[in-house]
Amino acid sequence: MDEQTMFALLVDLHRDGPRQGPGSDAETLRALELTRIDRDAALDVADIGCGTGASTLVLARGLPNARITAVDLFPEFLEILADRARDAGCLERIETLAGSMESLSFRVEEFDLIWSEGAIYNMGFREGVAAWRRFLRPGGMLAVSEITWLCPDPPDEVRRHWESEYPEIGTASEKIAILEREGYDLFGYTVLPPAAWTDAYYRPTGERIPAFLERHQGEPDAAEVARLEREEADLYRRYQDWFSYGFYIARRR
Ligand code: SAH
């Protein structure tokens, strides 16, 4: 399947979900607490790979004087984000930006806080934290969730899956070492609990699959996308003790 077709199908499947990846409002708030940031300050915040804005809206509520730039590759997601922000009464503090996280044109030291949930794998953790550092003021905070081994010796089936999907997958200690090498001090670490995978992501995605297949009847690519989604959810169900998203909160040196 060509990339364009796959992207269009993924957007169609995920645009109506509460989130486009594992996470929850409670976990976003927990990570925000770990930043120890002054919540009432007039902060400049970026939410990179924001999807339809689940975390963006939690940040807008939790940081009442912040201005947030919400970045995603897909304008379709950003349109939904803008609608949700309008409904929540915070659209005037949110700017949406369609573009790639790999070629951001932010100013040097523009942000007090860079947020990214379930998205940095698209460019790779090491490259992402290294590239985004210059957009943070010294002392600014990075909060990023990243697929992480919970144990160093996962069973073969799940190891093979992730090493082919995302060879950069590692343990928390490996990710923390990368942050330290790239000029950050770790401030906090937390792990997404199973409910953040199932309640907020796999279950609602699974419930939308029949309608998705209806919309794309007779399209083998759509059937393949649905098959891969179900396979991934099943892999999580069987191997959830071995991997999760780690949430890394780090301060720019
Ligand atoms: N943070 C959101 C979405 C996570 S899914 C949430 O937690 O719900 C990953 C997101 O990254 C998707 O919205 C996808 O469109 C976006 N994405 C993928 N590649 C990207 C890129 N190169 N630049 C910016 N965003 C990208």
Concise overview:
By secondary structure, the chain is of the alpha/beta class.
What does this entry look like structurally?
- The protein has 253 residues and is of the alpha/beta class.
- The protein has a single domain, classed as Vaccinia Virus protein VP39 (Rossmann fold), CATH 3.40.50.
- 46% of the residues lie in helices and 22% in strands.
- Strands 1, 2, 3, 4, 5, 6, 7 and 8 form an 8-stranded mixed β-sheet that branches.
- The longest helix is centred in the C-terminal third of the chain and has 22 residues.
- The protein is globular and about 50 Å long.
- S-adenosyl-L-homocysteine (SAH) binds next to helix 3 and strand 2.
- Bin the strand percentage: 15-25%
Specify the CATH architecture.
3-Layer(aba) Sandwich
Which outline best applies? globular
Radius of gyration based on Cα positions: 18 Å
Number of helices: 9
Which oligomeric state applies? single chain
First and last CA, distance: 43 Å
Q: What fraction, in percent, of the residue positions are helical?
A: 40-55%
Name some characteristics of this structure.
Rossmann fold; eight-stranded mixed β-sheet; alpha/beta; globular; 253 residues
Q: Would you spell out the secondary-structure blueprint of this structure?
A:
Layout: H1 3-14, H2 25-35, E1 44-48, H3 54-62, E2 67-72, H4 75-88, E3 94-98, E4 111-116, H5 125-132, E5 136-149, H6 156-165, E6 170-171, H7 172-181, E7 184-191, H8 194-215, H9 220-239, E8 243-252
Parallel strand pairs: 1-2, 1-4, 2-3, 4-5, 5-6
Antiparallel strand pairs: 5-8, 7-8
Helix pairs in contact: 2-3, 8-9
This protein binds S-adenosyl-L-homocysteine.
